[in-house]
Amino acid sequence: MRRIDDPIALRDCLARLSDGANLTVAQARLLLASKGLRARQKVVEAALKLPAADPKASLAPSPGPDPA
Which residue, 15, 16, 40, is CA-closest to 29? Predict the structure, then answer.
């Protein structure tokens, strides 16, 4: 099993797995376990308290026109 100790990475992982549903800590840990992932309870609690990530924030900005 893999362990995730970063709340931000865990939040993003849970968002992909749960389709945006509000999860309890127990539900989140069961969902992670079903995919072979582990996380400490405090990390799961912290991840669930974080605001949802903006899907556009992960995209790299497109380069503008070259001023030359």
Answer: 40
